[in-house]
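Dear colleague,

Thank you for sharing your sequence with our group. We've completed the structure prediction you requested, and as agreed, I am returning the results in plain text so they can be pasted directly into your records. Please verify that the sequence below matches your submission; if there's any discrepancy, let me know and we will rerun it promptly.
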Amino acid sequence: MTGSLPLFGEARPERADAAENRRKVLAAAEELFARCGPANVTMDAVAAEAGVGKGTLFRRFGDRAGLARAVIEEHETTMQDAMIRGAAPLGPGAPPLERLIAFGKAYVAFLERHAALLMAAEGSYEAYLRSRPYAFYRTHIRMLLQEGGLGARADYLADVVLAPLSATAFSYHRGARQLSCGELTDAHADLCARLLDSSR
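Please find the predicted structure tokens below.
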């Protein structure tokens, strides 16, 4: 299973000075995003905080969404690594339903920490659906659903399982609906259990 997951985040080799500038920019951006909220941070502010030129920042990251994606990438990669090589049930070695429930719980916790940054990185919902992180999670969920007996339906239902875990949906449920992370985790676990029960 792990060999076909489209893991992202492998950095291409870069010059030492470029790597140092990247480190400074990402550290400055993460600090500003956390302190001010991603929507309130300008590229000018990040460049000033990092001590680099605006041109360098725009050439490297394109815009604020690109910068947000770069900041969140390290956190996403850590999450993905736990799914591929970590301990069960999030990692390999547990039955499909246990792994689906563990993923939902872990990703709700991930969203609780990073939802605002993810929303800044996602841009539109369509862009999120076409992103490499989404492709990774979708492949993981689809394979678990297939393993759980859902066959060809798993391809469509993988999107159903992931829909409540978008940063936009999570923020709505936490804010407008005032649901706790525990309630969201339990509801997602119930969804997964019902889907796999339908395969019997």
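Summary note from our side: The two ends are 23 Å apart (CA to CA).

Kind regards,
the structure core
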